[in-house]
Amino acid sequence: MDQIQPEIAEEQLLAEARQRPFGLPRGLRDLTGLLLRYLAHGHSRLRRQLPQCYPLVAPEQLPVSDLRYDGVMRTQTLEIRTGMTATVHDLTGDCAQFVAAETDGLLSVFVPHATAGVAVLETGAGSDADLLAAIDKMLPRDGRWQHRHGSAGHGRDHVLPAFIAPSIMVPVIDGRLQLGTWQSICLVDTNVDNQSRNVQLSFLAG
């Protein structure tokens, strides 16, 4: 990286900071903005490792449209009523609304429960019912399970997250989930003993 001479005015550096990143790949562009933001907040470790001639840049002067990362992961918790039967609950609308005001990044969908999972699949054309039928066939609700508390066969619900993970990550570009035409984000809950589930949505800007 070229050494920035002390005599370069702050206004010139700001102009270069706004213009030069647009000619770089996205990752380098974001790294440039992130570095400037850390400098603006005066992080001592970074400042010791960089030439002292770099002037500090106020955060409000950074090209915010080019970089939205501010060190904070935004999180919202949804309460989903699943009732007393096994269910596949579509979360896509909630997820889309959660990221609608963002630009680029990653959406994490996480279920903090030991008997539920999150899956991406088609819904409304029978696939959700097919999934529940496949789970019943693969993990029968009977007395074979060593985990025996709760209703009969409840032990199989504790095995479910090993097959349907409790979290997924979905790319977001320009505030839109990058799902395929027939893909939906779904909560899969086979535990008939619990009627309510929490789902944590977290967005990390790119």
Topology:
Elements: H1 10-19, H2 26-40, H3 44-49, E1 74-81, E2 87-90, H4 92-99, E3 105-110, E4 116-121, H5 127-138, H6 155-159, E5 167-173, E6 176-177, E7 184-189, E8 196-205
Concise description?
This protein has two domains: 10-61, no CATH class; 74-205, YjbQ-like (Jelly Rolls, Sandwich). A hairpin with a 2-residue loop joins strand 5 and strand 6 (176-177). The protein is 27% helix and 24% strand.
Structure description:
The protein folds into 2 domains: 10-61, no CATH class; 74-205, YjbQ-like (Jelly Rolls), CATH 2.60.120. Helices cover 27% and strands 24% of the residues. It is built from 6 helices and 8 strands, in the order αααββαββααββββ. It has helices at residues 10-19, 26-40, 44-49, 92-99, 127-138, 155-159; strands at 74-81, 87-90, 105-110, 116-121, 167-173, 176-177, 184-189, 196-205. It has a 5-stranded antiparallel beta sheet, covered by helices on one side. A 3-stranded antiparallel beta sheet has the order 2-7-4, sandwiched between helices. A hairpin with a 2-residue loop joins strand 5 and strand 6 (176-177).
Question: What is the 3D shape?
Answer: elongated
Low-confidence stretches: 20-25, 40-70
| N-to-C span | 23 Å
CATH architecture of the largest domain: Sandwich
Radius of gyration: 24 Å
Structural class: alpha+beta
Relevant CATH superfamily of the largest domain: YjbQ-like
Number of helices: 6
Q: How many distinct domains?
A: 2
The pLDDT mean sits at 78
Strands across the major sheet, in which order? 1-8-3-5-6
What's the order of the H and E elements? Answer: HHHEEHEEHHEEEE
- Quote the beta fraction: 15-25%
The quaternary structure here is single chain
